[in-house]
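Hi all, long-time lurker, first post. I run a small reading group and we've been trying to get comfortable going from sequence to structure in the token notation. Rather than ask abstract questions, I figured I'd post a concrete chain and ask someone more experienced to write out its structure so we can walk through it together at our next meeting. Sequence below, copied exactly:
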Amino acid sequence: MRIRSARSITITAMTQPTLRVETREGVMTLTLNRPDKLNAIDNPLARAILAAVAAAASDDAVRVLRVRGDGRAFCAGRDVSAAPTEDDLVLVQAVSRALVQLDKPVLFAVHGWTVGAGLEWMLDADVAIAAASSRFKLPEASLGVFVTGGLSATLAAHAGLSRAKALTLLGEAFDAAQACAWGLVWRVFPDAELEDASQKIASRLAALRPDVARQFKRVFNEVGLGHFERALELENAAQRALAQPSGGPPGPR
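-- Answer (accepted) --
Happy to help. Here is the structure in token form:
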């Protein structure tokens, strides 16, 4: 659907069951749209995000990808209401790869709970901001599963190896101030200001020359996340090993 605003700015919007997509002034905004499930990730949501990122990659009018969540939380991690499958792992890893490989800046604006795979995807962004009331947790080890999203590379790159091990092995919840102090988010805003702040930051990113933004992202990721693909490969192997009967409950979160 294409509509015109009062200022004659073209807005492109799409409505899907689990994801809302809107493009305005060079910014494509993805809104996770499962508020009754705290935006827990199921396969239709992962596929919708993949399709949206692919659309952003192929559209020269899109200069920035902004990701947010509807309702009380950004994302409660994997939806565990159904038995996990191999597709779960493939899709969650594919989203992470797409976010990192997209040659345009990716901005995440999170609020409420950001858990498991939702946090893993956030760390695949180029810039992440959080509402002051945000809470974070990586519960995978306590559930007998392994992390995904390239977290074994991104978390250590953001927070250091020792803290990455503690956060994943112990799975303790932490708040937005701690996330900012540890380098997991860039800035923290009062809850009521998060949406406006994210729009302003997205506009600043969209104002950059596309080739400049592309080269900054490419070089920083190549240097700082040079082992990202290897991380995905090792995470996949660890997930599948833990899915064996002797390894405990299967499937990613």
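A couple of things your group might point at:
The chain has one domain: 2-191+209-247.
The domain at 2-191+209-247 is CATH 3.90.226.10 (2-enoyl-CoA Hydratase; Chain A, domain 1).
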